Amino acid sequence: MGRIRHPFADISGGSPHRTTVCRVTQDSPQQLAQDAAEKLAELTGVDRHDVALVLGSGWLPAVDALGEATAEVATTDLPGFSAAAVAGHSGKIRSVRAGERNLLVFLSRTHYYEGKGVDAVVHGVRTAAAAGCGTIVLTNGCGGLKETWTPGTPVLISDHINLTGRSPIAGANFVDLTDLYSSRLRAMCREVDPSLDEGVYVQFPGPHYETPAEIGMVRAIGGHLVGMSTTLEAIAAREAGMEVLGISLVTNLAAGISGEPLNHAEVLEAGRAAASRMGDLLGRIVPRI
Ligand code: 8IG
C-alpha cells in the first residue's frame, strides 16, 4: 500500500552510539497519538485504519461519497484533541468502510492560527499514522492565483511553501521532503480526472487573508494556491512515513485578483456548490489509492 520507510527509521531506538530521533518516548507527541489511536480503536470497534482523509473548507459534503460510516467519534473523546473552532468544521472523526478498507475521515482540523501550537495542528495526522494509515489525503479550501481556476475548481497540490516558519518536527531529524506530495498518487488522480490541474500551495499563518501585495509575493516565489493549513500536516505525515496526497478546492480568487473583497461566507458557499464534484472525485480516487 505504498508505505514509505522513514530514512531514519532504522536508527529509531537503535544503536546507543547514535542520537536517537523520532522515538516514541513517554509524553512525546507520538506517544499521545498512540494513546489516541488506541482509544479510537476502542470507540470505533475498528482495530486498524488504512487511509486517512482530512476534509477542509468546502469538502465536508463529499464525505458520504466515500462509503458507509461505521462509527463517528468526537475528537474531544480522544486524548490530545481540543474542540473545533471554525464555522463549517465539526470536531468529528468518522470511520468509513470502503470496499475492503477502513478509512479514517477527519471532518475538521486544528488550524495553526488557533494558537494551540504545532503539535496540536498535527495531532490528527500522527493519530492516523498510529492507527495504521499508510496514506493520507489532505484537502483544503484555498485562494487561487490563476484566473482560470473559478471558485469550485479542485487542484492537486504538487509542492508547498511553508510560510509559518515552523516545523512539527523537534530535534535533529532531517526529514526529506522531495516528492512530499506523491507524484504517483497525483498521476493516479489525473487518470481518474484528466482535467485536474496542479499547483504549489503556500501556507500563510492566517487568520487574516493576504494583502494584494502578499499575493504578488506569492506569484514571485512560485506559488499558485494560498491557504492556512496543510503544510505542517504534510510534513508530520512524511515524518511518520505516510504517503501524502494533497487536493485544494479553490473557493476564491486570491486577494487583489478579482477586485472583490474576500469573505468566509462566500468560501463556504463555493464549497457547497462544488460538493457533488468533490464527492465524485474523492469517491473515485480513494478506491485506487
Ligand atoms: I477558503 O484566499 C480560503 N482560505 N490564506 N487565502 C488564505 N486562506 C484561504 C483563502 C485565501 N481562501
Helix content: 25-40%
Helical stretch count? 6
For the largest beta-sheet, the strand count, sense and barrel status come to: 5 strands, mixed, barrel
What is the end-to-end distance?
A: 8 Å
Mean pLDDT: 88
The CATH topology is Rossmann fold
Give the strand order of the largest sheet, numbering strands 1, 2, ... along the chain. Answer: 5-8-7-6-9
pLDDT < 50 stretches: 1-21
Describe the protein.
The longest helix has 22 residues, at 264-285. A five-stranded mixed beta barrel has the order 5-8-7-6-9, surrounded by four helices. It is of the alpha/beta class. It has a single domain, classed as Nucleoside phosphorylase domain (Rossmann fold). Helix 3 (183-192) links the parallel strand 6 and strand 7. The radius of gyration is 18 Å and the shape is globular. It has helices spanning 29-44, 118-130, 183-192, 212-220, 231-239, 264-285, and strands at residues 51-54, 68-74, 92-98, 101-106, 135-144, 153-162, 197-203, 225-227, 243-253. Helix 1 (29-44) crosses helix 2 (118-130) and helix 2 (118-130) crosses helix 5. The model is unreliable at 1-21 (pLDDT under 50). It is built from six helices and nine strands; from the N terminus they run αββββαββαβαβαβα. The structure holds 8-iodo-guanine. 8-iodo-guanine is lined by residues 57, 141-143, 204, 206, 209-210, 226-228, 251-252, 254, 262, 267.
Give a brief outline of the structure.
By secondary structure, this protein is of the alpha/beta class. The protein has six helices and nine strands; from the N terminus they run H-E-E-E-E-H-E-E-H-E-H-E-H-E-H.
